[in-house]
Write a structure and sequence with these properties.
Number of strands: 0
Largest sheet: none
Shape: globular
Order of helices and strands: HHHHH
Structural class: mainly alpha
Strand content: under 5%
Radius of gyration: 16 Å
Length: 102
């Protein structure tokens, strides 16, 4: 019984942690929808730092446009790369577009 508890506990904790960051991403999406760009950037950054590839992509888009953050296309490419490496295909596409656009 104790072995079973020791095996289940880490899985439960990981599930709670990932759901917290899913909530962070959803909070960021809500802020973005309400045009609260600075709040969205903060939440997407938090999600990205914890491995959420979609959060990295969305934060990259904010840096590309300068919404809620100081526009920085180099940072945008870096975030798109992180998103792409995390499996977010839109990040891969946006890298190509940024290199193709002067």
């Amino acid at each position: 019984m104790i072995k079973l508890c020791k095996a289940i506990l880490p899985i439960m904790v990981m599930g709670m942690v990932s759901s917290c960051f899913a909530d962070t991403y959803q909070d960021a999406q809500t802020a973005l929808k309400n045009k609260m760009y600075t709040e969205a950037a903060t939440q997407f950054e938090n999600a990205c730092e914890h491995g959420n590839a979609k959060g990295c992509f969305q934060l990259g888009a904010l840096y590309e446009k300068g919404d809620g953050v100081v526009q920085n296309k180099y940072k945008a490419v870096s975030l798109y790369t992180q998103a792409c490496n995390g499996g977010e295909t839109h990040g891969c596409s946006n890298i190509a577009l940024m290199y193709d656009t002067p």
